[in-house]
Amino acid sequence: MGKTTSGSPDDKGSLLSPEAMGGINAGKGFDFQTRYTVCHLPMWLQDGTFHQLFTEGTGDIDIRYLENGKSRRKHIQTKDHDVAPAEFKEVIATFRGFEADMPGVYQEFRLACPSLSPQMRPVETGLSRLRNAKPFYDDEPSALAQTQHGVDERMRNVGLSDEDIAFIHAKVYIDVGYGYLAHDEKALDHFIGRILDHPEFASKIRAMVLPAYDALLRKIGASKGVVLDKSSLETLLRSAVLTDLSAEASVTLWVHNWTKEAFTPPADYELDWTPLFDRGSRKVPSPNAWTNELVPQLDALRKQIMAAGAVRTIRFRGKCALSTGIALGATFPAVGSWAFEIPQPPAKDFWRSDATPTPGYVLQTEITEADPSGADLVLGLNIRGDGRTDVMRYVESTGQAPNAFVFMAPPSQGAQSIGGDGDAVAMAMAVREELGKLLKVRQLRTTRLFFYGPFALSVFLGQQLTSVGRIQLFEYQDPSYVPSCLLKT
Asked: Does residue 454 have a cis bond before it (omega within 30 degrees)?
């Protein structure tokens, strides 16, 4: 059953044992182990049950897999040199010590090294041949009796006991051929090859190189009978591949509301809210769903992106409700140096929230006084049309009269009223400025916001709505409006 003492540093199962502390104490002496871990991570990550990695825990590398709530653990010892019989026996003794102190915790023990000494190689080749043959003879295990006897004799010849041999057959594996891990450049080549085998990262690399393929297709197709020299072809490749690499650092975010679709480029982050939206009825999530589910997801996403690095540019893709756009912008505000790149058809170029605002932009503002004792403002933004009648009719039906109705619009209304991202940024900034003044003069802290305009502008507007109190958003849901997201700025 193993040792009965508790807490002794000599227990191999203790995290304070010399075996467990060796790598931590040695510091930089374990470059081989680090390279082994990094080069294998792309493979481990492709296993859907891979759960955790723990280095220098009960030895060198521990891996935990989790499936249907049940854990499976693998322990790996790495050696940066050829392993001879005496050291191999020490490794097996260490493995058996872990098993004795933590019975059944580990389902596999593995030794990884560049190679084995000449005396040990027959053991490794014999074990490998025996294990590779077992699936073929699974219905006739006696067919391998002589082979196993020969392997056992090889292990006895290097000083292993029958108990060691039984344990090796049950749980120990030997990995050789890792001489390349002694060199960073060779290890890097292997890492790149394994990253290319990972579906997620392979698709991103493919997306990066795809422009070069398309550019060459067009060039070759248009150059029949024309001599193309090396320099012109290299220039074409540099232009196609390196242009995107030299662009600013950014992340791609997909958010799904009405439909779930695939976009270009591939997503670095993705939020799927389609279960809460229905395109046919234009049904949007309830206020509680926005408050308790969706806005917290946006907050968590912001923290996740910030934790990953200093990137502050977001390439947005998705077909979403206007409330989603405003909430998204409010979560990633301009004052936090966040910038969005958003497609806004029919414009050919993406709209940027950090575009230069159109100089001298004139915002049209109309105020209709309502209840002097009203606790909030109703703000209607009329970009693609005049929604005053619908908004006022809806608000009156709620029986909650505002202090005033405020309607803001660009110099002209209609589909072309926002000429580009410069106009959009200018209008968003002007709305924030005017709303702030009205709330301050009237000593109010709440606004009911009705927005009718392009999606990109909704995001830009949300980015500007800071320090203006509580903003209740509304969505049009035939035949009228419904409350959606409550922003606390």
From this structure: no
